[in-house]
Amino acid sequence: MSSKKIYSQVQNELADLGKVSMLRVIPDVEDGASRELLFKGERLLNLASNDYLGLASDENLREAAVKAINKYGCGAAASRLVTGNFGLYDELEQEIANFKEQDDAILFASGYAANLSIMDSFADRRSVVFSDKLNHASIIDGIKMSGARQVRYHHNDISHLKMRIESFRDVKSKILITDTIFSMDGDLAYIEEVADLCDFYEVMLIVDEAHAEGVFGGGKGLCFERKVSERVDLHMGAFSKAFGSLGGAASGNKDLMAYLRNKGRSFVFSTALPPAVVGANLAALRLVKDDSSRGTKLLEISRELKTFLQSEGFDCANSASQIIPVILGENEKALEAQKILMNAGLYVAAIRPPTVPKNTARLRLSLRADLTANDLAKIKNGFVKLKKELA
């Protein structure tokens, strides 16, 4: 295809996306992690960030980042396996392992990179990987990259999962990977039942706790809250959500971690995270480890707001976390609702396909532990207004 044909095809596809309200642009946002962000010159209450505990602006993290810069400089300059390593990095990995009650841990540039490496290391063309239909894109992409056979099961449908596993019971290399909190629905995996099936059929169990860490299980994640953590082979988490910083992490058995350190391409071939980020990560981890009350408060706020929204007739699906969807169906309706809430002083993400299934466009409320009583009243008033204007 000539370059001119490529341009024409791109232009046509962009036009098609615009016709169905699916064309994405980067919003004109500043202070996007703060409790209040700046959007086109106006201050709006931020209900779209994943900074669940409000740690991104925490003074402890700021000081730790500056201290790391002063000691180590701005960049790692190489892969960890070459020269891009500092004592601070080893210290963080050890504290992650201790926090998660595992033998060892590995730090990655992002949660996305962690999932790519995990799948690429432990799955291959001889493997079958069972994956919840609503798993994060990084999991899906990791499975594709590995060359394994992806076997998707209906979301949180244990009977369907059992049937799927049963049909591949003779395959030697079997892996199941699931989010523990699903990022667009805010509901929880039936992790106890999933672990039971993995034990019975001898399936390697990998969990993505990116949206659960810092909030559930004293900050350790849903598997710890549900007391199944010891039955999980590999735990994945992210510092970019409740911990207010950046980076992904995997933890587990020392041999699995050694294998991942050798085979994980996004670890082996990536420059290490900057020292400032690692310093902030360490400070955030220690804050959560020493005091899990922010996560407890966040879940209380979330339950209260979901109950209110449902009482107003909004569809919040099966959310049981700090992520609350308000499902509206049509793309245009979700975008209209977003504008109405902006006029009420609220910034809420409008999520459309392909991020969510067709005809389930929604608002995604991403709540924070630092919301005040006045903030909650403002949110409730905004949705009362939204209900009237959408009627």
Task: Give a quick set of tags describing it.
single chain, 391 residues, alpha/beta, Aspartate Aminotransferase, domain 1, Aspartate Aminotransferase, domain 2, 2 domains, 14 helices, 14 strands, globular, AON_synthase_class-II, pyridoxal phosphate
Describe the structure.
This protein is of the alpha/beta class and 391 residues long. The chain has 2 domains: 20-49 and 292-390, Alpha-Beta Complex (Aspartate Aminotransferase, domain 1), CATH 3.90.1150; 59-290, Type I PLP-dependent aspartate aminotransferase-like (Major domain) (Aspartate Aminotransferase, domain 2). It has helices at 3-19, 59-72, 87-99, 111-122, 137-146, 158-167, 191-201, 222-225, 254-263, 265-268, 275-290, 293-311, 331-343, 373-390; strands at residues 29-30, 36-39, 42-46, 104-108, 128-132, 149-153, 174-179, 204-208, 234-238, 248-252, 323-329, 346-347, 349-351, 361-366. Strand 5, helix 5 and strand 6 (149-153) form a beta-alpha-beta unit. The longest helix has 19 residues, at 293-311. The mean pLDDT is 96.
Short description:
The protein has 391 residues and is an alpha/beta fold. It contains 14 helices and 14 strands.
Topology readout:
Blueprint: H1 3-19, E1 29-30, E2 36-39, E3 42-46, H2 59-72, H3 87-99, E4 104-108, H4 111-122, E5 128-132, H5 137-146, E6 149-153, H6 158-167, E7 174-179, H7 191-201, E8 204-208, H8 222-225, E9 234-238, E10 248-252, H9 254-263, H10 265-268, H11 275-290, H12 293-311, E11 323-329, H13 331-343, E12 346-347, E13 349-351, E14 361-366, H14 373-390
Parallel strand pairs: 3-12, 5-6, 5-7, 7-8, 8-9
Antiparallel strand pairs: 1-2, 2-3, 4-10, 9-10, 11-14, 13-14
